[in-house]
């Protein structure tokens, strides 16, 4: 099979990606992303409840497009910015296109719990919506004593 046989498929795939990305900047401007934890200070080994909320603050519905079944991710970074835990590292996600529609005023809440043991120090928790709309991130600083 020659390369020429793949060209129509590649152009079709590119058209799909461009169509998904159209309007992404406008959607991002209407979104509010917030990361919340159940406390600001924890003991080493204490569970950390993570909540990532996204809200459509605009007047129009927003469709969030996804390349996989993954919708969000959480990371914990130490004071040097190194990732010490990433929720998705232990997950597998179906490789399918998907979408979530948020009507005006609607929100989606993603929640997870970190059950590991962090050494005492300052950490930044980062929650990311993995949609094609670009960076939709919430952060929060916590302390482990």
Question: Can you summarize the main beta sheet?
Answer: 5 strands, mixed
In whole angstroms, the N-to-C terminal distance is 61 Å
Q: What's the mean pLDDT score?
A: 87
Which percent band covers the strand fraction?
Answer: 35-45%
Q: What is the SS-derived class?
A: alpha+beta
The gyration radius over C-alpha positions equals 18 Å
Tell me about this structure.
The longest helix has 15 residues, at 7-21. The protein is globular and about 45 Å long. With 145 residues, it is of the alpha+beta class. Strand 9 (121-129) and strand 10 form a beta hairpin. 17% of the residues are buried. The protein has helices at residues 7-21, 24-30, and strands spanning 31-37, 41-42, 48-56, 62-66, 72-77, 83-86, 98-102, 107-114, 121-129, 136-144. Strands 2-10-9-5-6 form a five-stranded mixed sheet, with no helix packed on it. It has a three-stranded antiparallel sheet with strand order 1-3-8.
Short characterization:
By secondary structure, the protein is α+β, with helices and mostly antiparallel strands. Helix content is 15%, strand content 44%. The strands form 3 sheets. A 5-stranded mixed beta sheet has the order 2-10-9-5-6, with no helix packed on it.
List the helices and strands and how they pair.
Layout: H1 7-21, H2 24-30, E1 31-37, E2 41-42, E3 48-56, E4 62-66, E5 72-77, E6 83-86, E7 98-102, E8 107-114, E9 121-129, E10 136-144
Parallel strand pairs: 2-10
Antiparallel strand pairs: 1-3, 3-8, 4-7, 5-6, 5-9, 9-10
């Amino acid at each position: 099979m020659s390369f020429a046989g793949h060209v129509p498929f590649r152009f079709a795939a590119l058209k799909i990606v461009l169509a998904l990305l159209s309007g992404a900047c406008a959607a991002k401007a209407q979104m509010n992303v917030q990361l919340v934890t159940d406390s600001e200070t924890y003991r080493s080994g204490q569970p950390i409840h993570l909540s990532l909320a996204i809200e459509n603050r605009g007047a129009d519905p927003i469709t969030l497009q996804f390349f996989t079944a993954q919708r969000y991710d959480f990371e914990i970074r130490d004071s040097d910015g190194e990732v010490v835990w990433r929720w998705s590292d232990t997950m597998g996600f179906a490789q399918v296109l998907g979408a979530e529609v948020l009507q005006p005023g609607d929100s989606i809440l993603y929640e997870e719990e970190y059950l590991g043991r962090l050494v005492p120090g300052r950490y930044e928790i980062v929650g990311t919506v993995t949609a094609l709309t670009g960076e939709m991130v919430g952060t929060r600083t916590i302390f482990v004593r």
